[in-house]
Amino acid sequence: MKINIDVTVVGSGPSGSAAAKYCAEKGLNVIIIEKKKQVGFLSHCAGYVSKLVARYFSVPKACIQQRIEKMRTYFPSGCYTTAKMRGWIVERSIFDKSLCIQALEEGASILINSEAIELKESELIVKERGKNKIIRINPRYIVGADGATSRVAKWIGIKQRRFANCAQYEIAGVSIETPEIAETYFSMEYAPRCYAWIYPTSKTTAKVGVGVIGKNPFIYLNTFMKSIEKLKNAKVFAIYKGLVPLSGMHEKIHERNILLVGDAAGVTDPITGAGILSGIITGKLAARAIAEENVERYQDMVNKVLGKRLQRSLEKRKIFDEIKSDEELEKMLPKLWVTFKDFWADH
After folding, report:
1. Cα gap 300→241, rounded to integer Å
2. What is the pLDDT of residues 137-162, one digit of tens each?
3. pTM of the predicted structure, to 2 decimals
4. Check: CATH 3.30.300.70 for 65-88+162-245+325-345?
5. Alpha-carbon span 234 to 151, nearest angstrom
């Protein structure tokens, strides 16, 4: 089977769905290649999304687990501060499906259970998983939206250099007084050089996780669960793990007719690990560059919108990596975390 098409998007996550949606809106023929049998499954994300996402996609109520109005940041000493932060905790599998559906409703097509395995000159080789069926696609443009370990990125010589290992439990049987407040915790004991989180999904349920660098995150997650009083009797009903890129945006996110978006482009924040909104933004910018047939501008477009913030976070990441004690972290945290004014003061 052979397909000639304007744009092939590899990956159906938020960045891929954004690229497909905005390409289709501009009248381009688009096909999404998704290796899973179900879009959005299995999720491994904490699921916080900024309300700014609503500028790009409709966010159905069905995927919203909890409205968030503030973030509470805990120092190693147990002291905390609270800052405004408006967004939602979403059920990622439903959220991702809803974004993909919006791309399909704009006219994009999709191949599920299919994997882009090779690029031979201008021909993309796609294999239907579990079968011997091979599909040959000749796209004018390829958008790599295939995540932190992107195969498309490797085709243009790019490889992610550094990751945080993240682990998360979904829990029940907890008492959360104010579920509109997301909580982040900092300690070298249970989240060295990263952080732990409690993201409420109701007054009695939450997503609880940690990120660590180069270590088994579940060891630290279990330590965190034992360290926080309200988590000690929690009942775990779901377990996730995943990788979060920490290296910042790649020096090259475009080559020839290939454009990288989202985690594949390295636009995940090196401090917070946030990547959904920036992924959607890169998807839209990639679609704009393709529609204008001026993909040489794509990297400059992304740098203009996201470059300064990502560079700031990368500089903070380098400082964070050098911290060796809770005492030092207690002192430095206001300069290293996004809810503090000092984080933004030196730029």
Report:
1. 33
2. 999 999 999 998 999 999 999 876 78
3. 0.94
4. no
5. 38
